[in-house]
Design goal:
A seven-stranded mixed sheet has the order 3-2-1-4-5-7-6, with helices on both faces. The chain is about 40% helix and about 20% strand. The chain has a single domain, classed as 3-Layer(aba) Sandwich (Rossmann fold). The protein is of the alpha/beta class.
Length: about 220
């Protein structure tokens, strides 16, 4: 089973990151990003949390979506800006170098969608709550939130098998990069606690991966 902890190893070579991730994952990571992109209607102003090299943003732009992304890695942001120039995405994709803590500078109700892939499992529960709260504030009422990430399986058998296969990969990755990822135990609950209404949850990869499609409720839904 492919484990997303390998992302930490591959981030040290940002210019070949997408290609290597696609190879190591057997094409799964790009397929996940395409699935996320497919949820966003053309013409939607979209915020991407942790845009990395801009692969998802480019897929969104191909659908007629405008993307504003941010990432805390200077090398990833540099590659994303190179992509903007190489793929003529100027005016459709912009990127800033900042972390989750910079989200409090986002304007209220500025976006029609917020997306994120394989980022929330890298941060703490408190950071996720902050990011989700800020994402909700930055979304227009009815705006979409689409998150795809590694989660804890609902099946005890799947949890055991996943842990057995994942543990040595986590150890090897930490030895090399001093970083790792942590499957999220209750992403559904965290989304609801931040005020989102969940439209759909899709599980895959032995129930250890999930894509959530949610939205910021309109005022009449809240009332």
């Amino acid at each position: 089973m492919f484990s997303y902890v390998f992302m930490k190893l591959l981030e040290s070579r940002p210019r070949s990151y997408d290609r290597r991730m696609d190879t190591v994952s057997g094409g799964r990571v790009r397929a996940i990003k395409q699935a996320v992109a497919d949820q966003i209607p053309p013409g939607t102003r979209t915020l991407e949390i942790g845009c990395g090299t801009g692969e998802l943003a480019a897929l969104l732009c191909a659908r007629g979506v405008t993307v504003e992304g941010f990432d805390r890695s200077p090398s990833m942001v540099e590659v994303a800006r190179e992509r903007i120039e190489a793929e003529h995405l100027d005016g459709r994709f912009s990127v800033r170098e900042t972390g989750i803590d910079g989200m409090d500078g986002l304007a209220d109700k500025a976006f029609g969608a917020v997306v994120s892939t394989l980022i929330f499992s890298e941060i703490t529960e408190d950071e996720r709550h902050f990011a989700l709260t800020q994402a909700r504030r930055a979304l227009k009422p009815g705006g979409l939130l689409v998150i795809a990430d590694e989660v804890v399986s609902r099946s005890s058998w799947h949890r055991l098998m996943h842990a057995m296969m994942r543990t040595p990969l986590v150890a090897a990755t930490y030895l090399v990069s001093r970083a790792t990822t942590h499957p999220i135990r209750d992403l559904r609950g965290e989304l609801m606690a931040a005020g989102f209404a969940i439209d759909r949850e899709e599980r895959s990869h032995g129930d250890a991966f999930a894509m959530f499609v949610a939205h910021r409720p309109a005022e009449e839904e809240v009332g």
